[in-house]
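Re: the request from the purification team.
They wanted to know what the chain is likely to look like in 3D before they choose a buffer screen. I agreed to run a prediction and write the result into the notebook, where they can find it.
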Amino acid sequence: MVYTTKGTYVAALFHGECLQCKTKWYPSYKITGDSRRIFLDSAIVDDEGYLQITSQTVFEKKLLNDISNNLWVSGTTFNSRAKVYNLNFVDKDEKRLCELKEFARTSEGEWKLNEQRLSDAWFVWIIISYYSQIKKLEEISFNVSAVTNRLEIEHACQLMWEEICSRPNRWVQHSCKTPGCSEGYVTVDGNEYLKRSKCALPTTKVKLRKDLPPIFQCCTNSPQPGGKSQEPSKFCEKHTKVAKEAEELPVPPEFNVDKCEAGLLPEEVCLADAAYSGCKRPNKKTLFFESTAGMLALIRPCGIVVNMTEMFTSESFTQVFLFILCTFSRDVGDITRLKYLGYDRACGLVPYLRNQAKNGSSGAILLLEHVNFLVDIFHVSKHTEAVCMPPDNPKCEFHPHLPKFSTIKGVNTESCEQGFRRLNQYFEVTRKMTQYKRNILFWFVNNRFNTDLESELKSRKLM
């Protein structure tokens, strides 16, 4: 079955097998002797032609590009896009495929495009396009599930996400003439709306070292979905049978700070801080135990999304700290692009960093030495501590109208709130996605947005 911009067609597909190494060759990929599926350079040479996803499913590349545009511009879901496709071509397809039924599948309606088929095809397209750009297409392979006989897309997305996190982030060095951008200002904030379900393995409060605060250890994997062969579960595949047994949990790659700061332990990622709350009291925090706490984002005043990642259990200072540190210390010189940081809880984050610095945290020392922290103008008027309000009192540290912030006077401190209005449209398409598919989708839409925004800034002569 071939899905195109003009409807669904039936095609003949040819393949061959090497008699020596037993590799099977198809138009878009090869299957090695150990059953790994590796896509060929010919699959993504240009945007013309077709991409074979499985032995029975082929997509026109123009259709995949069209779906990509629908996805990032309007946040359409794969289910709704598949329905639109079927509505557009149902009459013509039924007539054409009926005439070719000796070649077509015999089950009524089996030719129709569905959410799963479309989602798999789109993620394969994005993954192989990315690896082709970094000249590593031969290194990425897709496994086939022995249970469902479908491509294990989530595993391939995980490998891609780890590759993205290990490489330099080009958006860190973005600089334009928008007030505050070239001066090194960025806003960090959390969005609790963009959350997803996660494994319900009970969290455990532990003390790892005396120089570190207590943390909540949690599992960040997605729960097992229901299907024809299994009941839905609140737990991930790993913890379905051992739900009550706490195991050692891996650190998500976006918080891997091994190269950033020696001494930080991976489990710090799930800290739910009880102290250093600043103007936001602990009893006003919302904790999520069977879903993530949303997304964290770093956004320039011009709108460029520097980085974005998930929050776990709550919007904790440890996650914000590690997120900032990992974003701006991967390459030498990145820290120079961070001079001012706006955060609605800066009055709590700075005391937290000072405490970590006293305990020997080199990352906290680095940020305190290079960064000036302030509370964004929208939230600061609601704060009550002397360090925030009023700005003319001698104890005030974080109000944006203080003389020490005169270099960025009038800067857009609400860039995160504005960015979240755009990103919230992806809630429906991402809320039931597994962890790494979701990360890849947000990476895709933010890259497309940033690229378009840079082009617009250049046309306005702001770059």
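For the purification team: The first strand starts at residue 2 and ends at 4.
Please add any questions underneath this entry.
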